[in-house]
Each structure stands twice: as C-alpha cells, then as structure tokens.
Amino acid sequence: MNKKNGFSRLTAFLSLILLPSWGSSGSGQADRSANSDPLNLYAQSVGWMARGNYKKLALGRDFKVEFLAPPAGYSSESRRRVALSYRTQAVPMILDSPRFFPSRESEKERLVAEPTALGYETREGEWAAQQAEKATRLRPYEPTQLERRLEQIKYLLDFTKRAVYPYVGNMFDGGLELGPGFRARYGDSGLVDAHVAWSVKNYKSAVGTVKLPTLADERIGVELRGIWLDAPNFAFYGPGNDSLKTDRLNLIYRTSSVGMVARVQATKCFAVGGGLDAIQIASRPAAAVSWTAASLTYRRRHAFAEIDWRQSPGYTTRGGLCRLGWSGYRQTNAGAFSFSRVDAEVQEFVPVLRENWVIALRALASTTSVASGQNVPCVLLPDLGGSHTLRGYPARRFQDRHRVLLTAEYRWKAGQMVDMAFFVDAGKVAHRVRNLDFRNFRTTYGLGISFHTPLTTVTRIEIAHTREGTALILSFSPSF
User: Fold this and answer.
1) For the chain, which end, N or C, has fewer CB atoms within 10 Å of the first or last residue's CB respectively?
2) CB neighbours (10 Å) of residue 97?
3) Do 159 and 181 form a contact (C-beta atoms < 8 A)?
C-alpha cells in the first residue's frame, strides 16, 4: 500500500463514519455542544486513525490539522478553527472526498497539515500537561519570619520616598549617629538632601548635598555639597607603625567645607570625575584652656578614574573595582602645609557555587608628597583603623605619610538577606615609601554578620581581634 492510496482510504473511511452527522445543515444544528460538533468529531477521528493504521504510513513527525473553510450552515462556533496534533509525514496536504464535500469547487473543505510542537501524544505534550498541572498548585511565596523582619528594617531605613526621615550612620568613625534629615526631589533627577546628627561620642555633624539633574542621558552628574563637623574627642596616637596605645592625644577637631564634584560615566563600567573644595580646619589639644587652635585653610582639587563592574557599591557578590584618585591640598593662609595625595584601590569578588560563597579581596594604598619645606598636618595623614580599614583597632590608630592595606574575606549566605563572613586585615603605615614592605604588618581577624537588600548593606556587625584586644564593630555600610 503506497502512501497516497493509504491517505485516500483514510479520508474515505472517515467520511463514511461522519456522514450521518453531516446529513443536514441548517440553523437547527447551529448550537451543538462541543462534544457533538461535527468538526470536533471529525478532528478527533482523524487523530485516532493517525495514531492507528495511518501511523504505519508516516515518518512520525508532529503537525497540526485545521479546518480553514467550514461548510455553510453551521454556527460561528462550528466555524471556528479546530486544531489537533498527531504524528504523520511532514508535507502539507489537502484531504478531499467527493462523498464528504457536496460542492467540490465552491464549498471544498481543506485540511492543511503544518509542523507544530503541540502534540498530545508526544513528550512535549506530556511535559506541557505536567506544567499546567503544576500551575494549578502554585501558591504565592511566603517569607520567613526573619525575612519579614528584615523587610521591616529595610522599610524603616529606606527613606528615599520620604521628605523627612531619621538619619542613622557613623560618619567619621564617631560611633552611632542619629538625627533628622530632609530630602526633596526636583526636575527629572535632581535631589536636595540634608541632615544633622549627633553621635554617642558627642560628635556633631551637618551635611547638605544638591544633586543637579543629570545630563547626556544620565552620563554626566554634578553635585554640590557642604559639610560641617565638630569632633571634641579626635584621637591622635602619634605617627608611625610602632605608636603605642598609651600615646593617645585627644584633640578638638572642627572642619567645614563646601565644594562641587562632577562625574562622567563614559561607559557602563568606566567613569572619570573631579571637583574643587574650599576647606577650613581648626584643631587644638583637648586639655588646652583657651581656643588657640591651629587654623588651616585649603583649596583642594581632586580627580579620579575608576573601572567598576560590581553589581552595586552597597552590596555585591561578583565583579570588582579599580580606582585611582588624586588630591591636591594648597594652603591659602599662612603656613607650610601644602601637599598632594594619591589613593589607589583594587577590589575583586569571586563567587563560588552560584554565589552561595564569595571570596572578597581588597588592596589599598595611599601616598603623600610635599615640596621642600612643606609638611602634612596630622589630622590629614593617611590612617589605618576603624570599621573599614584594619578593623578591631580604634579609628585612626596608625597614621603616617604612606599606608598599605590588604584584606581577604570569606563570605557565605546564612539566609535570604543575611551573610556571614570571616575576615583578615593586614596593614602598615610608614614615613617613607621604601619602608612599605611586608614586614611588621599589623593584622586583625574576626567574624561578622551583615543584613542586606539586593543592592544595599543595611547593618554590619563584626567582632575583630587584635594584639591590643577584641572589639565589637557596628556599621551601616559594607566593609568594602
């Protein structure tokens, strides 16, 4: 039996089966149910035969059967296209039967076969049925109690949509700071933000920023800012890597600055920028009776270039950062404290096993240079110590003209928005660059936990051990 004769016999057989159902055509048949509709019955019979006898004549490929021109006299429901998937040869065909189609020339009905992937008897069909069954059992995700609490914390600390908000931070490593803040948006992307704060160490600060609307498709941004700080317990332990904790000298330190900074996002990862600031600094020993402070006035120019492929500066599990910055401090009042400073930093985040574990690495170096007869004031020396550099030591524990810091962290996910980390810091300060070798490094190590959103670190709590003791660290930003 060749394929053509087989197909003709199939068509003739089906026409004999379904001929009684098509005996009369009129309005009385217009409202038939789906189960008794001739088009449905015909398509079902075609599918049954194709899976039976005719399957022997085919090559086993899926295609779809459609009635493109239903006979006149049937309802719109009967005239709808009926599709059925089954296996047969992959060539378009027209089924034609003189007994079945009373008007061959004008009312001829055609069944066109075309490839499809909707076969009910195929693996794809079974998979689709299983997926549909699973869809009926889907339920909305129910967060755990810890996740609900973290969302509440995130809501309390996310003040981007509030005009008046409570500020929480630890600026200048003065301990936990609290105070009121105000934020207002203008234009397409402009922002005014200001806050005042008081810390547990009696530090007082006021910060205001005005971000101008971005330009060039958000590639150029300009920010104006002003900062005022009063630190009545500013610590200075003396210069050098061998300074003693008992050498601490408490200073009253006050500073204010106004300036602007511009940033150009040249590509997705590469950015350059710079700015200009006017800075005034006054400091004196806290034990002094009168305010005969050393006053310094600077005009600072600064520039930077960076390649940043992290997910977000506030929280990331992969990517990295390479940044190089330069600052020039030119003293504008009488004195000999003009200098320049260069800071370089490299970060790398290596995900392991789908970011469940992350190896975070960091290298940081700073160096200063002065002209003959000039020097760097102690309050502006590069330093190590605090919640971000050489953790476990007090803020600015080690200061000198040059510094280097190496950090390694092993992070792992302890929950949906909770990370744990084991970290090691090693750093050194020196009066000369050639003394920045790998000998006599100050090291710290510890364990921490951080609560975060997908893009921001909400809270970081760490315990760090040093040769001077163990310290508890509380911060509201990532370690790096």
Assistant:
1) N
2) 17
3) yes
Tens digit of each residue's pLDDT (9 = 90 or more) over 329-344:
999 998 899 999 999 9
Alpha helices in 74-120 (DSSP H): 76-79
The total of other beta-carbon atoms located within 10 Å of residue 329's CB is 23
pLDDT in tens, 231-249: 988 889 999 999 998 888 8
Q: Which long-range contacts (CB under 8 A, 24 or more apart) does 193-198 make?
A: 195/167, 196/167, 197/167, 197/169, 197/171
Q: For residue 78, what pLDDT is reported?
A: 43
Q: Are 256 and 224 in contact (CB under 8 A)?
A: no
Contact 132, 148 (CB under 8 A): no
- Dihedral angle over CA of 282, 399, 430, 368, nearest 10: -40
Contact of 274 with 303, CB cutoff 8 Å: yes
> How many helices and strands in the chain, by DSSP H and E?
5, 21
What is d(CA 194, CA 225) in angstroms, rounded to the nearest whole number?
9
Q: Which residues, in sequence order, are bridge partners of residue 192?
A: 184, 210
- CA 131 vs. chain centroid, Å, equals 30
* Contact present, 315 and 452 (Cβ < 8 Å): yes
pLDDT band at 195 (very low <50, low <70, confident <90, very high): very high
* Residue positions counted in the chain: 480
Identify whether the C-beta of residue 383 lies closer than 8 Å to the C-beta of residue 366.
no
* CB neighbour list of residue 352: distance below 8 Å, 6 or more residues apart: 358, 359
**Token duo for residue 96:** 């034609």
Q: How many other C-beta atoms lie within 10 A of the C-beta of residue 422?
A: 13
Other beta carbons within 10 Å of 86: 25
With tokens 């160096």, the residue in question is 367
Domains of the chain: 3-135 (no CATH), 145-169+208-475 (2.40.160.50)
Closest CA to 169 of 199, 140, 133, 213: 199
